[in-house]
Design a protein that fits this description.
globular, 10 strands, 47% helix, ten-stranded mixed beta sheet
Length: 309
């Protein structure tokens, strides 16, 4: 499955407007050339000192209304909207763009904070998390080598309810962007009671909550990663399991596990990683690694555009 080509083709079918608020970065400028040449999206790119003053004041007043109960003053809101990242987030909230992509220079925490405060959290799941779309060459596991990994960017130590909600959001991303039936595995160091401990109990509880919230979702756990993705191992370790070793959405038990897992996969198998794609918000956006390549920016814009369709 050439998932990158598929996503770019889908993005071209119904053009969306995506904001890139980091024009100072040479990689962003190069990415814009590729995006415009291939017709992947309509892009708006700007940086410090390039913001529309009238819109800036309009967004500041909107932001003040959103956050005044939290103690934010109108002066605070005006200062907030001087930042191109925050301006891009309010553009998206206001419908002046369909999504935004940032992180070539901004930290993940800055991107997530602007996204949460401006776009708002989806009440269906009430948790924001970061997914990576992983495409692994010469791999028969997952969806012909394609997986969603989560959470790899935002929630350090999720509780059972948070894990359940992260699983649901990640499954929705897989269905929307990949066009596949999500097969979700809640990962652990234990497979179906092979080990004991509070962290295992947390996964068991997360599974029960996810099934209660989304009875239609194909999800199982707790599973060691080999039992989740290798059919032969699944047949030995959990022969009665739902996934049969064919999981394509992997939910890690903690941020450190997810971050280590995606980076190991990326480096050891030369995998293509797209993200962190931020899910659980009312509008689509994506973070970038500050070590991103031009193609990573293009891919994140394509994913964000498809999500906005």
């Amino acid at each position: 499955m050439d998932i990158v080509a598929k996503i770019r083709t889908e993005a071209k079918a119904k053009l969306k407007t995506i904001v890139l608020p980091e024009i100072e970065d040479a990689r962003v400028r190069e990415a814009v050339k590729v995006i415009e040449k291939e017709g992947i999206a309509k892009v708006l790119v700007f940086g410090q000192g390039m913001l529309d003053k009238v819109k800036q004041e309009e967004y500041a007043r909107q932001y003040y209304e959103l956050r005044k109960a939290k103690g934010v003053t109108l002066d605070d809101a005006r200062k907030f909207l001087r930042d191109p990242l925050c301006y891009a987030a309010m553009m998206t909230r206001n419908g002046d763009s369909d999504g935004f992509v940032a992180g070539a220079q901004y930290t993940t925490s800055a991107v997530a904070r602007a996204a949460i405060q401006c776009l708002g959290v989806d009440e269906r799941t009430n948790i924001v998390s970061g997914c990576f779309l992983m495409e692994i060459p010469n791999c028969s596991y997952g969806e012909e080598g394609v997986f969603i990994f989560a959470d790899c960017g935002i929630v350090p130590d999720p509780n059972s309810l948070q894990l359940a909600c992260i699983a649901i959001s990640s499954a929705e991303l897989a269905k929307k962007v990949l066009g596949v039936i999500p097969k979700v595995a809640l990962l652990s160091y234990s497979t179906k009671g092979s080990a004991k401990g509070e962290r295992v109990d947390r996964i068991v509880s997360a599974l029960a909550l996810a099934r209660q919230m989304r009875p239609d979702l194909l999800i199982d756990g707790e599973l060691q990663v080999d039992a989740a993705i290798v059919p032969e191992v699944a047949q030995i370790k959990c022969p009665n399991g739902l996934l049969k070793g064919k999981a394509n959405v992997l939910i890690f038990p903690s941020l450190e596990a997810g971050n280590i897992g995606y980076k190991l996969t990326q480096r050891l198998s030369n995998a293509r990683s797209i993200g962190p794609i931020i899910v659980g918000l009312n509008k689509p956006c994506s973070d970038l690694s500050r070590g991103c390549l031009v193609e990573d920016i293009v891919d994140c814009v394509a994913v964000t555009a498809v999500r906005a369709q």
